[in-house]
Amino acid sequence: MMIRMADEDGFSGLEAAIVLIAFVVVAAVFSFVILGSGFSSADKAKEITMDAGRSPTAVMVMGTVVGQANDLGVCLRRVVFSCGLNGEGISASGIRYTLMTNEKIYEVPASDVTLSWVSERETNAFLSEGEIVRVELELIPAAIVSGTEFMLTIAPPRGVPVNIRCRVPETLVANKYYEVGFGG
């Protein structure tokens, strides 16, 4: 004999199973997200721990930044300076050079960068601590005219970029060299 209740609304076994499965799926997705973020943060912590022993790389400009006027004496043709390094060695060709004025930002393409070693301990393309490289940047496309102030940013592939404040003299004579900045 079956007992009847006044209100026969309720969960059947099938409905209860569907709700249970939904809870299990939501819990599985939630745990996957939590575990994934845990693994990600563990990997980041490992990376930070491994990098802790490295000293930061800093490029230094040795002395002055010299600019050469173009054939017409209107703008700079090139700038020349010497760089050294503090910290772990880096690929000299990986250093990026940017000039910023009030009007524009000019990233010097690798084809307009000429490197020549002043002092080299090893015959490779790496700039290591104690070595000095002379850098020549062709600036014709940048059109840095007389009287312009600009910021020369030297950014190594990893490490700390350095900014050098430069100013082109008010009057330029064709093909003459001028001190436009000082690195220290």
Automatic annotation (TrEMBL):
- UniProt keyword annotation of Repeat present: no
Places the protein is found? Archaeal flagellum
Transmembrane stretches in the record are 16-36
Note the InterPro entries from the entry: Flagellin/pilin_N_arc, Flagellin_arc-type
Q: Which GO terms describe its cellular component?
A: archaeal-type flagellum
Just give the chief location class.
other
Q: Which organism is it from?
A: Methanocalculus taiwanensis
What role does it play? Flagellin is the subunit protein which polymerizes to form the filaments of archaeal flagella.
Record's PANTHER family? FLAGELLIN B1
NCBIfam families for this protein: arch_flag_Nterm
Question: What name does this protein carry?
Answer: Flagellin
Q: Which UniProt keywords apply?
A: Archaeal flagellum, Membrane, Transmembrane, Transmembrane helix
Query: What family does this chain come from, according to its entry?
Result: Belongs to the archaeal flagellin family.
The record's section on Pfam families has: Flagellin_arch-type
Keyword Cell inner membrane annotated: no
